[in-house]
Structures are given as structure tokens and as C-alpha cells.
């Protein structure tokens, strides 16, 4: 074997790697833009792990805020639902067996007409660093009852116990009642309410007024005024054949909820007002029925209409929505850094990309912690400005060009501005996010259309052109 042939064979005994094809530099291949692109993508996916911990921290803080709201509600008054008034009349059913005792039942008669109004004055109560909206409300119920007709309940001849009849009102949290409550009978005296629903009903939250000396065989008109404290929401149940409900408050951000939306509503800087008209045909409840202790709450407290005193800046919800855009944002920033690296012909290490990623993740921790004290907008601006300044300065030092660092800072500021716009635009967030992602991808594709991702092209052609011709082995 000739000396030239011996030199062409790799010296494996000395631990040397097999030679790459002519013109391919293994070191240059390891630093190819294409390989680095996938490494950067993998690092962006790895950052999902700390982002999951940030999301868990947000959930914990949100749970703490809800606990503070519940504690204030326990002391002040929880979410209030007012249902009624309803007329409860016990009656005896004759026994079908001789010498047996008659059966006692309780008939419930709902009003033929109900005019209800409420006016709620809200205020903010604080527990630790959390704010909870509470209200003082004046609820007025005007109801008109027709004479009870037991034939609508049973075909049997029954014995009404008129002296045990009661007027009942269901209230979700009776601890919110302030002062005494009375039922003003038209052309009669005021009757004071007592705890529980009355007429022998054991279950259900509410109050009742005994109607011992009234002639219930004639139409009955009553007016009830309640001073009621509560928090978060207020609802009134339209129990009558025809119910007209009006509600007003100084709260400027109501969220109307319940079985029916208001027919008319006005929301301005002074608060809101709304009105509902509901027929009994829209409710799955007859106007007269036998009461069952097991469904007391279902009878008086279900199907209410009203408003939730919504806090327009729910910082925990906004932080959660910001975290959902985190992966796309981190990926976009990594691509921007990668583009600057290509332009500067630098060589950033994976550790440096990881440090940039950690700074982007820390933005969400800063946002969450500052928002609890400063409000979401101020916290967002502060956290975004600090993160932008840190990353821009760091990349400027690494690439030895503060101009490129300033360019990255401008990109970051624009990105944070777009994300904030997405957070505040609930109706068009998906559309704006999709269009923004498409524009970013199109920009990246067009800007890198002539990039040599393999990092081999020119060097291969030059090496092949300059390589000496191999001697012919033909005879």
C-alpha cells in the first residue's frame, strides 16, 4: 500500500473521528442556523414548566381572594336572593280509613300580581389586600293575592286552618337583614315578620308573618319593605302570575344574570337601572301547589333575576389570559433574538437564550404580585418596562451592540403593547391574536427566505472547486 493511500484512511487507532464528506466542516455544521432554530424551539417548550408553576401560583392567589370575599360575605351578607311573598295555608285532609287521624298538608298560593323594586348602594370592603364589593339594599315587595282555591290542588273536601296561615318570604342569607321587617296589609295593621318560613315548614331560609285575624276568603294586598345587606349579587324571584321587577344601583359595571335578561336597562356614570316583566308561563311552577319540605329552597329561591356587581378589572383572570399567550410571546422573542444574532453574525449560547426565557417568565410573576397592590394597568406597565430594559441591555452587551439591544427593546415594547390590547379586547381577542400570529409568521418567512439554514452551501462549493484532482487509478 502506498503512502498516499495510507494517509487517506482514517487513523482510528488514535481516536480520530471519521472524516466528513469533502467540504463539510463538522464545527460549522454544529453551528448551523437550522440546527439552532430547533434548539431554540425546544428551549421555548421547556419554559412551559416554569410557566405552569406561575399559573399554579395565580390559581392559589385567586383562591385566597375568593376566600377573603367569602369571609366578608359571612360577616356582612352573602349573595342575596329574595323570593316571595307567598301565602301558606295549612289544611286537613279527611282520612280514607275510619277512625284514622286526618292528614295535615300545607298549600302554597303565589300572588296574582307582584311589583318588586330594589335600590342597592354599593361600597368596597377590604380584607388584607383584597377588595370586595358589598351593598346595602332597600327591597320593596307589593303583592296581590286572590282568595285561595283549594280545588286547584286537590279534588277532596279539605278543612283549611285559616288561623295558622302565614305570609312567607324566602331569603338566601337572613343574616343580611337589618332592622325589623313588617308586612303592611292594605286597610289593615302592620304585621311583624318572624324567623323561618312558617306554617310548619322546617326547611328553607326565610321569614314569615302570621295571618291569624285576617279574612283570607277575600283578595289580599300586602307591602313588604326589607333592609338587606349582601355582597356580589342581588336577585329577586318572579313568583307571581304577572311579575314586574325594577332594580337600580350606583354600581357602574353590572353583569345581569338569572333566568331572564332585563327588558330595559340603562347603564351610565351614575350606576344602572333595569326592569323585568315575567309571566308565570315562563316559569316551571304552578300558582298553587302542596309544599314539600325537601324543596323549600327550590320553591322560593330558584329562577331569580337580577345583577351581579361585577368587578371589571379581575386581575387574576387577566393574568391567566396573559399566561395563555406566554408560549407564543416567548417564541416570538426568541426568534427576534435569533434574527439579531444572524444579522450580527454572533453566536449566542443556549444558556443565554435560557436566561432570556427566564426573564420573560419572571414578567408574569412580577405582573401578578404588583397587580395585587397597584392595579393591573400600572403593574403591567411596570413589569413590561423592567423586563424590556433587562433583556434589551443583556442582548446589547452579548452582541456588543447597544443599537441591536435597542431594536430588541422596541420589539419587546411593541409585543407587550399588543398582548395588552388582546387582554382588554375580549370580543376580538381570538381574531386579533390569529391575525397577529399570521403576520409574525409571514414576516419571519419572508425575512429568512434567503438564509442558508444548513450553514454548508458556500463552503461546500468552494472546497470542491479548490480540491486537487485525484489521480486516475485506471491502468
Textual characterization of the structure:
This protein has helices spanning 3-8, 26-30, 33-46, 48-76, 296-301, 315-324, 326-344, 350-374, 376-398, 402-424, 429-447, 457-466, and strands spanning 80-93, 103-109, 113-127, 130-145, 159-160, 166-171, 177-185, 190-192, 194-195, 206-210, 220-231, 233-237, 242-249, 254-258, 264-268, 271-279, 288-290, 305-309. It has 475 residues and is of the alpha+beta class. It folds into 2 domains: 27-60 and 316-451, no CATH class; 78-311, Immunoglobulin-like (Sandwich). Strands 1, 2, 5, 6, 9, 10, 12, 14, 17 and 18 form a 10-stranded mixed β-sheet that branches. Strand 7 and strand 8 form a beta hairpin. The protein is elongated.
SSE blueprint and pairings:
Blueprint: H1 3-8, H2 26-30, H3 33-46, H4 48-76, E1 80-93, E2 103-109, E3 113-127, E4 130-145, E5 159-160, E6 166-171, E7 177-185, E8 190-192, E9 194-195, E10 206-210, E11 220-231, E12 233-237, E13 242-249, E14 254-258, E15 264-268, E16 271-279, E17 288-290, H5 296-301, E18 305-309, H6 315-324, H7 326-344, H8 350-374, H9 376-398, H10 402-424, H11 429-447, H12 457-466
Helix pairs in contact: 3-7, 3-8, 4-6, 4-8, 6-8, 7-8, 7-10, 8-9, 9-10, 10-11
